[in-house]
Amino acid sequence: MDLTYRPRRLRRSHALRSMVRENSLSPADFIYPLFVHEANDVQQIGAMPGSYRWPLEALIKEVERAWSLGIRCVVLFPKVDESLKTEDGAECFNEKGLIPRAIELLKKELPEMTIMTDVALDPYSIDGHDGIVSPEGIVLNDETIEFLCRQAIVQAQAGADLIGPSDMMDGRVGAIREALDDEGFEQVGIISYTAKYASAYYGPFREALDSAPRSISEKPIPKDKSTYQMDSANAREAIIEAQLDEQEGADILMVKPGLAYLDIIHRLREESELPIAAYNVSGEYSMVKAAAEKGWIDEKSVVLETLLSFKRAGSDLILTYHACDAAEWLKQE
User: For the CA atoms of the chain, what is the radius of gyration?
Assistant: First the structure.
């Protein structure tokens, strides 16, 4: 055939493919989500094979392992004892609570590791919602933000580097930024869950924290989070959310879930110069694990391909439960 250009010329060897590769993965791209609890044992999470609830002492060793693999950021999620949950989730700003103690311990043992936190009420609420639920069953926006600001300040006082508001209340980024600055925490960053969708992919995560919406009283409780998390049918709305978060002082924008919303990552990449994070959520993780256990897929190949897709779509950072495994595999390549 008389062909002037043959794209396969640059694919014929590993060396050539490496030379022209447009995107790459590094362990420093990963943010490793970790579940912590008050119990003394390491507990396997049933719906998330290979993921665990960590007591504080074991948490230190796991974070040290992540650091040794080149991971430079972890995000902490609490499994809160049922006795501490209330309608307003006030345990979220307890200075002696689980997350502040975990942050302080990690900063003492491994001060260079970047610590990201989660700001929302659902782990602390008997209702399982990210905000305070009114007697009429409405998730209150402005009242919730007051509690989120207090939560963020306590986390910053404990040593958090990045505050991660995952609640999707309107105006919370600006309010948290102002609250942090007023308390002298100008250097603490905000990684905002900018486009967080009301997704079915969160199921295993909610099992890990026992944080799904529920009704244990006569008060009407919304059965899902669709009045504040985004509609999965909407893409342009994500740009509005990103513009607002940027104006309010977010340092990093996040899309959650990641894999089913690669188009949203790409849209935000085109609209903003801020770093973009993708959350490779629990449902995405567990599907890969389940298929790999059945022998239907090669786990390593699928995980690395999936993580690379986030980079190709435009993300700079990836929150993923695969972080340590992926870091190990990348070292082998």
Answer: 20
CATH superfamily of 23-332: Aldolase class I (3.20.20.70)
Pairing label, strands 162-165, 114-119: parallel
Surface-to-core class of residue 164, CB atoms within 10 Å of its CB (0-12 exposed, 13-18 middle, 19+ buried): buried
Domain boundaries, the chain: 23-332
* Residues classed as catalytic: 196, 256
Q: What token pair was written down for 286? A: 């567990």
Question: How does pLDDT run across 271-290, given as a tens digit for each residue?
Answer: 999 999 999 999 999 999 99
pTM higher than 0.90, yes or no?
A: yes
Of 313, 105, 277, nearest to 195 by C-alpha is 277
Report the amino acid identity of residue 90. A
Asked whether residue 153 carries a pLDDT value surpassing 90, the answer given is yes
Q: Could you read off the pLDDT of 97-151 as tens digits, one per residue?
A: 999 999 999 999 999 999 999 999 999 999 989 999 999 999 999 999 999 999 9
Q: What is the 3-state secondary structure (H, E, C) of the chain?
A: CCCCCCHHHHHCCHHHHHHCCCCCCCHHHEEEEEEEECCCCCEECCCCCCCEEECHHHHHHHHHHHHHCCCCEEEEEEECCHHHCECCCHHHHCCCCHHHHHHHHHHHHCCCCEEEEEECCHHHECCCCCCEECCCCCEECHHHHHHHHHHHHHHHHHCCCEEEECCCCCCHHHHHHHHHHHCCCCCCEEEEEEEEECCHHHHHHHHHHCCCCCCCCCCCCCCCCCCCCECCCCCHHHHHHHHHHHHHCCCEEEEECCHHHHHHHHHHHHHCCCCEEEEECHHHHHHHHHHHHCCCCCHHHHHHHHHHHHHHHCCCEEEECCHHHHHHHHHHC
